[in-house]
Amino acid sequence: MITESREVAAFSVKNLTVSYGPRPALLDVSVEVEQGQLIGVIGPNGSGKSTFIKSLLGFVKRDFGSIEILGQPIEKAKGMVAYVPQRGSVDWDYPITVEEVALMGRYGNIPWYKSASKEDKRIVKECLDMVRMSDFRKRQIGQLSGGQQQRVFMARALAQGADLLLLDEPFAGVDAATENAILDVLESAKAAGRTLVVVHHDLATAAEYFDKLLLIKQRLFAYGDPSAVLKEDLLSEVYEGELKVFATLKQNGHI
Ligand SMILES: Nc1ncnc2c1ncn2[C@@H]1O[C@H](COP(=O)(O)OP(=O)(O)OP(=O)(O)O)[C@@H](O)[C@H]1O
Ligand SMILES: [Mg+2]
Q1: Alpha helices, H only, the chain
Q2: Which of 48, 91, 158, 229 could form a disulfide with 222 if both were Cys (CB 3.0 to 4.6 A apart)?
Q3: What are the pLDDT digits (tens) for 198-228?
Q4: Angle between helices 118-130 and 146-159 (to 10 degrees)
Q5: Each residue's pLDDT tens digit, 8-17
Q6: Ligand 1 atom with least separation from CA of 86
Q7: CB neighbour burial string for 142-155, b if at least 16 within 10 angstroms, e if fewer
Q8: Is 135 left (phi over 0), alpha (psi -120 to 50) or beta?
Q9: Comparing C-alpha atoms, which of 219, 237, 165 is closest to residue 16?
């Protein structure tokens, strides 16, 4: 279901603080994101990117702050958000086929007393086609390459039909062809009116791939057009010491 009103923010985060231990992983983050955009989340390792994504899913306990998804408080937004987790966080030995993983995306739409309908199966097929994984539908998920697994998890998220899709480093460890395939899928989901929030590591492609960037390191350092976020002063503050990042970006004329 694509929500009709474009006035409502895809999500709105106010004064969000999250901590696992004494030091907060996220501190006083406030941001409002319009619908129908492809948003990149950038920041160094351990800067709170995954925590931010998990907060939008309601997976982590907030110390403080509020979150609204499409105008609804997060507690009422179940099923409105789909998620593709960071690769290391999934148990790949679990005995389940590609088709079954994608069908899991439909579980929220299937009443407990029913099995998957023809419509559910049609949607699953369409989503596996989109990520070009239909030929592998009977294969166990553990017997796929990393890039293929990533695409199956994207199919599961797409099958859910949620307006807001959160992807945690979908491009990590994939080859150029898979990277392009994933990017195509993101672009078509956006063309269908969905909002996509994508944790991304490679600053060199960030401006090219995304409409807006969110720069996080515990706090929100910037949110806006890539040209406004990929500024040398901002990046040197956030990526302190990671001089290689700048050398490459400068060399390629990105900053
Ligand atoms: N479950 C947890 N328990 C305790 N600390 C955690 C937990 N998850 C994350 N952290 C800590 O919170 C901080 C933010 O972690 P997070 O995973 O959000 O960072 P990230 O930006 O996604 O990093 P990466 O680029 O390495 O994926 C880090 O210091 C991390 O060690
Ligand atoms: Mg992470």
Answers
A1: 49-57, 98-104, 118-130, 146-159, 176-191, 203-209, 226-229, 232-238, 243-251
A2: 229
A3: 999 889 899 999 999 999 999 999 999 999 9
A4: 140
A5: 999 999 999 9
A6: 27
A7: eebeebbbbbbbbb
A8: alpha
A9: 219
